[in-house]
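Changelog note: in this version the structure field was regenerated for every chain. One regenerated record is shown below for reference.
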Amino acid sequence: LAPENTLMSFQKAVEQKIYGVQADVVLSYDGVPFLMHDKTLRRTTNVEEIFPERAYEHSSMFNWTDLEKLNAGEWFLQNDPFWTAGSLSRSDYLEAANQSVCKLADMLEVIKDNTSLILNFQDLPPAHPYYSTYINITLETILASGIRQQAVMWLPDMERQLVRQIAPGFQQTSGLKLDAERMREKGIVKLNLRYTKVTNEDVRDYAMANLSVNLYTVNEPWLYSILWCAGVQSVTSDSSHVLRKVPFPIWLMPPDEYRLIWITSDLISFIIIVGVFIFQKWRLGSIRTYNPEQIMLSAAVRRSSRDVKIMKEKLIFSEINNGVETTDELSLCSENGY
């Protein structure tokens, strides 16, 4: 619905009445926390047009005054990563085209009343002037915004002890899949994991340990439904406007209905197999045995009467010869005294 990590995207998220948002925080060279997912500005801004010689620099190496000059919305309309640009209204299209890099403080002002926040950080280059203090600066910005501490899920694994001291109400969240016991030791209460790395058993184990799970990135209703049925508490999505229209898991059948279809299918299969067996037995039982003479006479029915007469004469002659041979054998036996 809007370019990522822009003020418009968070405004749209709040309009959709979502549970929470996720943001990637970077600190500018002059100490201003802003939002950017990539290490460079190339994908989501026009930095190659405004500062071509600095296009491959880390985004944190720009002053805020330089970041303000960049456009952070035109790429979204040109590339249309989610095939949604064509569905935007005229006013939304123009608003998206004029988006700029978003400050953390501006985003917090939009979401602070009713929305939770999953907060992540990019590591700064060692040459950055605020390399050792950027977490303190970010914490100050968050606390100054007035957002409830319980609404903030702190994802970075570094400096957790410092964060607990300054903001004890933050929900410590891990992006690593660890066993429940180790999570409790580290004071983790939530997990933020890719959905492909978690099984149903993992979700149940974490739930038994009182750990909630958020999975990303889930955009399809069918996948959302499966995870919902598995007991996942929340998901991160690029299509919140689609998933919010799913009031309950779709296409999944109740257990009793599934068992009924399963048993019915088994019964039908059994009846078909028995039917085939009976038919095969009946078919084989209807086949009669014939001696050679009967087969020849049966085949001769379709021939002319002259052919039939000749075949009969041959059969009679054959029987006479067989009789003579038998008589000779008996005579030979008697002569020899047998």
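Spot check on this record: The two ends are 112 Å apart (CA to CA). The chain has a mean pLDDT of 86.
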